Amino acid sequence: MEFDIEENLKKLPKKPGVYIMHAKNDEIIYVGKAINLFNRVHSYFRATKKSAKIEKMVSHINYFEYIVTDSELEALVLECNLIKEHRPQYNTMLRDDKSYPYIKVTVNEEYPRILFARKPHGDTGAAKTKAKLYGPYTSSYSVRETIELINKIYQLRTCNRVLPRDIDKERPCLNYQIHQCQAPCRSGCTNAEKYNEGVRGALDFLEGNYRPILNMLEENMLKASEELRFEDAASYRDLLNSVRDVAQKQKITSSDGADRDVIAMARNEKNAVVAIFFVRDGRIIGRDHFYMTETAGTGDADILGSFLKQFYTGTPFIPPQIMVEQEIEDREVAEEWLSEKRGSKVSILVPRRGIKEKLVELTKKNAEIVLTTDSEKLEREEQRTTRAAQGIADLIGLDNAVRIESYDISNISGFESVGSMVVFENGRPRRSDYRKFRIKTVVGPDDYASMNEVLTRRFTRLKNAEGSEKTEDSFTRYPDLILMDGGRGQVNIALEVLEKLGLDIPVAGMVKDDRHRTRGIYYNNVEQPIDTHSESFHLITRIQDETHRFAITYHRNLRSNAQIHSILDDIQGIGDKRRKALMKEFGSIEAVAEATDEELAAAPGMNVRAAKAVRDFFEARKKGNIMRDETPYEPASEPGEDS
After folding, report:
1. Which CATH class is domain 260-383?
2. Where are the domains of the chain?
């Protein structure tokens, strides 16, 4: 499906998210985040002055895609993940392996601490301890302020002492004196039960129950303001904003470092889109979406189940956890099948709460946006492909024209005559089924005879494949319709070949006008009237142009190969290196032909045996025993060539 940049710019949502720029070869060349995707992506394509780097990047954009998030913070974290994964060419400012802060709670200590951490799986502090991680967050300042706030409220320790080993070894620090620490380092000040009650309160806040602290700060701020203690009120206000920043829910990255796929679906009356987010090592590293066909009358669970079976049949990696938006049929069987393919246990989960449920909701939201923005494009694409092909079938009275094969001949005065076979399925080119033919039995520019040879070879292969167990390929499949590049003459040649082979396949001709433009379609000895503004007519034109292009390109390649052929290539034992050495040594073919055996053997890379082969070759030519025209250059068969 062709990507219309102007059309897709209009459909961008005015939401936060990440945009991904692709070049013609699908390479990701830039990843960016935006508070408003509509405004940000539009800015690249406006006629305003940009830096040379941005101008160059925009000139290479072939298409773009985007992922919607719930906040700018999530967009920023996702942007970082995608840049680390894909290393885009133009993201030079973000190639610094930027890390984001986490809050680390050392829950395996008898008296846990709340710490600031940059490396979620690394060591923080003097002792290497397992920890519970929260984050990532975008503001280091807010994280540090929140840690300080929690420690003040619950009077948790900030020191690196190893407790209970170091109890009473030193006097308590200043925090105890100012009533900001319970001093578990001193006997009689607190106990593990009381201390851990404060830790549980801190964990409760970090896991989302932050309303009690926010209410307390708001009350203190208002009270200080009423009492004209404006400095204290400002301090409470700043702490309140810090807590709000940190309290924002995070779905883009999880601290468990898990690999999982997240799958959700959106549908309307005609179409369904399944979106999948790929989470690796706890980070979203990419996403994809798939259009599901024939969904009318099918339940959501059945569509999701069908997608799982088809997608994981072909994908090389299956994560240990797959999250879906609703239960699928035969979940246990699917888990068993996936576990066998992976070689270890695979679980299919339906999250009901928490961050995982939010991640499924985010995936579904992206599926809905794809479905909404692409519905018009899908409708247009269906009209110009599937419906256009059916329109051709209706025009000439066929049930369908799912598979159409088209043929053409290309030569210059009979030199290097070639034939081409182009295949369209459901109105789209199926390039893997294209085939090339070098004409073997026809001398001179006889297009009818050449076409007879091409069609005989193609459909003889089809007849021979009947009843066999060969893998299905282009030569073993029946077309619904054959289109010839021409009128009555070419159609009659095809009908003669099919009759001779006992095959009954409809054949039509693509007729041109005096200006060599497609005019209509010839079928059953009648040129069928066709609306030149219809999608069916445009499809016929595309098929005809593609058939021409494929034949002419192949013929041009053969001519180029023939032009660089040297007569020395026909000598046994003279390869590319010796040919170049002889031409460098003697300067011309005539000089090589006149050289003596001794002179030939003395040339770089040559020996007595090779020199004798050269001498015998040219002696035979002088006697008329070898003619250049009898040994035409035969390049190796290209992929798709029927040699």
Report:
1. alpha beta
2. 5-94, 102-247, 260-383, 389-561, 565-642
Cβ atoms of residues 99 and 76 within 8 Å = no
Q: Which two tokens stand for residue 234?
A: 């400002």
- The whole-model pTM stands at 0.42
Judge if 5-94 and 389-561 fold alike in CATH terms: no
Per-residue model confidence (pLDDT) at position 256: 63
The per-residue pLDDT for 561 is: 53
What class does CATH assign to 5-94?
Answer: alpha beta
For residues 49 and 90, what is the distance between their CA atoms, to the nearest angstrom? 18
Query: Does the pLDDT value for residue 124 go beyond 60?
Result: no
Report, as an integer, the average pLDDT of 160-183.
Answer: 86
Query: Residue 192, by phi and psi: left (phi above 0), alpha (psi -120 to 50) or beta?
Result: alpha
H runs (alpha helix) in 259-330: 300-314
* 340 Cβ contact partners less than 8 Å away, ≥ 6 residues apart: none
What are 456-500's pLDDT values in tens digits? 999 998 888 776 655 556 677 889 999 998 778 889 999 999 999
CATH fold of 389-561 reads Nucleotidyltransferase; domain 5 (3.30.420)
Residues 6+ apart with CB under 8 A from 57: 21, 29, 30, 89, 90
What is the C-alpha separation between 619 and 190, in angstroms, rounded?
110
| pLDDT at residue 2, as a whole number | 65
* Domain 565-642 CATH superfamily: 5' to 3' exonuclease, C-terminal subdomain (1.10.150.20)
Positive or negative torsion for Cα 561, 566, 570, 575: negative
